[in-house]
Amino acid sequence: MTAVFRFLSALLVTSTLAAGLMTFGAAAQNTDDPSVINPDEGAPGTMPELPIPPESGDEGPMVRPAPDADPEMPPEAFGGPLMEGEEEVDETMPEDGAASTDLAEPAEKQPETLETLFAELKKTGDETEAKRTARKIQRRWHESGSATIDLLMRRATQAMGHKENATVIDLLDQVLVLEPDYAEAWNRRATAHFANGDYGKSISDIEQTLAREPRHWGALMGLALILERTEQDKKALEVYGEVLDVYPALKSAQDAVGRLSEELTGPSI
Predict the structure, then answer these.
(1) Which positions does the entry assign to TPR repeats (predicted)?
(2) Domains of the chain by residue range
(3) What does the alpha-carbon distance between residue 220 and residue 245 come to, in Å, rounded to a whole number?
């Protein structure tokens, strides 16, 4: 009797399991039933499948910075001010960063002044070496001696990088109230006015810059560029000549002199 009961119980369990499997299979095939979870759509608690990023070059349309409106504008116009975060290189160290082992090198170098740097710039014919000297001069131009002015100038530089010229001008107005003899602030404001297409105000600020630093080749380059754009090529040629008198190895000024000379007098035979 006990053996028969066990056999019937096993048979009943087997039948129940078979019926359950058949019901589940039918439900799985019915994809229209909203209560049925399609494993392809992701069950609760599982990570959804992420799209595979496209290969480089196949990203599709995306927003990119607009090209410069004036591609012919030389980078040295208005001095090409140092941008915030730009690496400052110790000009006294070799390029590989190692200490100099040259026994002929004096133990202490004489401090460089603007006068000595400009004298070096004037006599240097090598373009690379001239750029190094020019960078030293630019760093001197950026030394305001005031933490407040330095902060305002950094913010103006950031705004200039985002083409927020109204903000740039407002910040530089504040700088010039605090220090009206700071030539680089006048130069930066001339740059902002130029970017706005307000050549009159730009020239006015260039004049203020040159009144405080007549050798500011960036301001001179900006002035020459404005003169060219207002079809005053002869005057522009004279100003480019002034640039080369200060910075003879500046290639963009050399090219401008050659181009304008040819346009005004015709090609040399």
Answers:
(1) 183-216
(2) 113-143+214-269, 144-198
(3) 11
Stretch 178-182: mean pLDDT, rounded?
Answer: 97
Nearest of 3, 255, 248, 1 to residue 131 by alpha carbon: 248
Mean pLDDT of the chain: 74
Per-residue tokens: 65: 């910075």
206-248: pLDDT as tens digits: 999 999 999 999 999 999 999 999 999 999 999 999 999 999 9
Q: Which residue has the tokens 């380059």?
A: 221
Q: Which amino acid is at 126?
A: D
CA angle 105, 109, 110 (to 5 degrees): 145
Residues in CB range of 30: below 8 A, 6 or more apart:
36
The residue assigned the tokens 């040259």 is 102
To 10 degrees, what angle do helices 147-161 and 183-195 make? 20
pLDDT tens figures, 87-133? 344 444 344 444 344 444 455 566 789 999 999 999 999 999 999 99
Contact (CB, 8 A) for 208 and 179? no
Tell me the C-alpha to C-alpha distance, in Å, between residue 59 and each of 5, 67, 233. Answer: 70, 20, 45
CA separation for the pair 43, 53 (Å, rounded): 24
Q: How far apart are CA 170 and CA 173, in angstroms?
A: 5
**114-123 burial by CB neighbour count: b if 16+ within 10 A, else e?**
eeebbebbbe
Cα–Cα distances (Å) from 260 to 73, 149, 233, 239, in that order, read: 15, 39, 7, 11
Q: Which CATH superfamily is domain 113-143+214-269 in?
A: Tetratricopeptide repeat domain (1.25.40.10)
Average pLDDT over residues 185-195: 96
